[in-house]
Amino acid sequence: MNILDGKKTSNDIKNEIANEVVSLINLGMKKPHLAAILVGDNGASETYVNAKVKACERVGFDSTLIRLNDNITEDLLVEQIIKVNNNDSIDGLIVQLPLPKHIDEKKIINTISINKDVDGFHPLNIGNMTLNLPSFIPATPAGILELLLRYDIDTVGKNCVVLGRSHIVGLPISILMASNSKPGNSTVTIVHSKSKNIKDLCLKADILIVALGIANFITNDMVKEGVCIIDVGITRIKSDKTKSGWKLVGDVDFKSVSEKCSYITPVPGGVGPMTIAMLLKNTLLASKSKI
């Protein structure tokens, strides 16, 4: 069993980005600039956004954090996004999800300029990705691909089973794994809440990508020997073995399943750090596209 170390790999990517930023500055170019809009005071969202701001500092990016009250109207939020769209000094924009219930997330995502949509959620970016045209790939799927690439995991002709069909992870990664690219060229099966015989489908997987958000859903009897597992899920559960009384676990029962794996991502320290690294990579691409 080999660990797909997202923490180490993400640090490698950040070092590469930081070196490239220095080169850009030496050529007289400006620093890449990422803006984030945070609506309300959701604790998890606050943590994620702060991590992204720190990551920007780490690689030499400029960053702007726009904090808005959770009672802001949809129209005022749209105005803020358009203001950033029109600001030539800002290369990338993310609006941290989830948003308050009175705001239409699809409308907000559609408002972000496709050229600054470094989260890769805009329908035009998703469409271009599907057609294998230049686009910003959603950060989590991009991070998964980068792990597979850097650990030289063969995906050609492999049975890839994706658990989950969210627009953020499941659907994009299923398209990317099936695409004629590297990594890619897999035979992909999407498993979801209406699927039957889920265990049998998982047992056929050479590569199993799990993005359900259900703690320890995948158990030892659901996977075959030699499987490569990418665990995207992260859930906080009670634990009497930590000072905080909580611990983070994935969608995969790591202890039992890892015995059968050729490769597996840990939680934490697997896909999570890669997501932020790829967000930075998208922002760098957005900045360089203006040169």
Note down, in words, how this protein is organized.
The protein folds into two domains: 28-113, Leucine Dehydrogenase, chain A, domain 1 (Rossmann fold, 3-Layer(aba) Sandwich); 139-272, Rossmann fold (3-Layer(aba) Sandwich). It is globular, with a radius of gyration of 19 Å. By secondary structure, it is α/β, with parallel strands linked by helices. The N and C termini lie far apart (44 Å). Strands 1-11-8-7-5-6 form a six-stranded parallel sheet. It contains ten helices and eleven strands.
In short:
The chain is α/β, with parallel strands linked by helices. Helix content is about 40%, strand content about 15%. It contains 10 helices and 11 strands.
Q: Which terms would index this structure?
A:
single chain; 291 residues; alpha/beta; Rossmann fold; 2 domains; three-stranded parallel beta sheet; 10 helices; 11 strands; 39% helix; globular
Helix content: 25-40%
User: CATH class of the largest domain, anyone?
Assistant: Alpha Beta
Uncertain stretches? none
- CATH H level of the largest domain: which superfamily? NAD(P)-binding Rossmann-like Domain
| Percentage beta strand | 15-25%
Order of H and E elements:
EHEHEHEHHHEHEHEEEEHEH
What is the overall silhouette?
globular
As for the number of domains, it is: 2
Q: DSSP helix count? A: 10
* Strands, total number: 11
C-alpha Rg (nearest Å): 19 Å
Provide the CATH architecture of the largest domain: 3-Layer(aba) Sandwich
Structural class: alpha/beta
**CATH fold label of the largest domain:** Rossmann fold
**Overall pLDDT level:** 95
Amino- and carboxy-terminal Cα gap: 44 Å
Biggest sheet, spatial arrangement of strands:
1-11-8-7-5-6
> What can be said about the biggest beta sheet?
6 strands, parallel
